[in-house]
Amino acid sequence: MTPPDLAPTQFREYTEWLEAQTLAPYASQAAQTRGRERPESPDPVRTEFQRDRDRILHSKAFRRLKHKTQVFIDPEEDHYRTRLTHTLEVAQIARTLARALRLNEDLTEAIALAHDLGHTPFGHGGEQALDEVLREYVPDTHFRHYEQSLRVVDVLEKGGQGLNLTWEVRDGIMGHSKGGRDLGLVGGDHLPTSLEGMCVRIADRIAYINHDIDDSVRAGVLTLEDLPQDCLAVLGRTHSERIATMVLNVLHGSVGRSEVRMTGEVLDATNRLKDYMYAHVYTRDARGNQELHKAQFMVKELFRLYMGTPNLFTPEDGYGPHEFDSLPPAERARRVTDFIAGMTDRYAAMKFKQHFFPEAWSS
Question: Which residues contact residue 152 at a Cβ distance below 8 angstroms, ignoring those fewer than 6 apart?
Answer without folding.
Answer: 59, 61, 117, 118, 342
